[in-house]
Amino acid sequence: MKPYNLLLVEDEEIQRAEMKIILEEEGYNVDDYENATEAIDIIRNKTIDVVITDYNLPDKDGLELFSDIRALNPEIPVIFITAYGTIDKAVSVMKAGAFDYLSKPINTEELLVIIERACAHHALISENIRLRKELKERYTAKGVVSASSKIQDVMNLASRVAPSKASVLIRGESGVGKEIIARIIHYASPRKDAPFVAFNVAALSPTLIESELFGHQKGAFTGADRAHQGRFVQAHTGTLFIDEIGDIPIELQTKFLRVLQENTIEPLGSSKAIPIDIRVIAATNKDIEAMMKKGLFREDLYYRLNVVTIYIPPLRERKEDILPLTDLFIKKYASENKK
Questions:
Q1: pTM for this structure?
Q2: Considering the domain 5-134, what is its CATH architecture?
C-alpha cells in the first residue's frame, strides 16, 4: 500500500517540526506549512489524504481554511488542533464537518489513532468514488459490444427514456442482458449518483418477497428478531430494478400498485407510511398479457410498469453479434488467466 499523504498546517515552527518527525517515522508522507494560503496551494496541486491543522493561523482561522478545503475537495478529512480550553472552537469545527479535533498539548498516541482512522475513512470514500466511476463507465452505450441494428435500436430507446421519470418494462429471454440495460438507463439518468438496487423476484419464495421488498419491523412475524430495511427504502432517490416481475404473487400485486400510486410504503408490522422517491424498472421473460387474461397479473399494475417497453432480442435473432461477442470473451478470459 502506498503511504498516505498528510498536510500539516501549524504556525509554531518547533511544534510543526516535532509533529512532522513523528508522522514520518510512522511512514506517512508529510507536507508542512505555516499558513493557510500555502496549504491551499498544495491541495490544488497534489493529492492529499488527510489535513491536520491548527485552528489559529496567521492569515485565516480554522473555519475559513476548512471552507476553502471543502470547496477544493470535500472528501479530505480535516483534523483540527485547538488551544487548551477553547472547546467552543472545537464544537464549531465539528459542526462544520471536520473529521475530529485535538486539544493542546497534543497526546501523540491519540493523534496517531485519529490520523489512522481518517486515512482509512478517506481510503474507503476514494474507493467508493472509484467504483462508482467504473460502474458509470461500464454501463454506457459505449460499453455494449454489438454489430446489430436491433441492439442499436435498444440502446437508442434506452438513452431516450433515461432522462425521464417513466417506468420501464424490459422484455426478453433469460440471459439477454436485461439488467445491463436497466443499469445503463440508471447511469444515464438524473438518479445516477443514487442507489441502483436489483431484486430478483424468482430467487425467493413467495413468503419472503413481501418482507424483502417492503421491509419489516422487529417482531412483525416469527423469526423477525430485528428490523429489516426493504428494497423500496434502499432504492430511495435512485432506481429499483425488479427482475422476473411476472413471478410476483397476485396477492402482493395490489400492495405493489399502491406504492407506485402513492409513493409510500408500510413495512410489515408497521402502520406508519414511509415516503419514497424511486424509479422502477421491471423485467420479465414471461407473456404478461397471457397472464392478465388468466387473472394471474393485474392489468392496472401492468400499465403502471409498462410506460415504456424495451425488447431485447436473443442472440439467435442477431447472429451478426456472435463474432464480436466471441472476440470480447476471448480477450476477457485471456486477460484474467494471463494468456
A1: 0.64
A2: 3-Layer(aba) Sandwich (3.40)
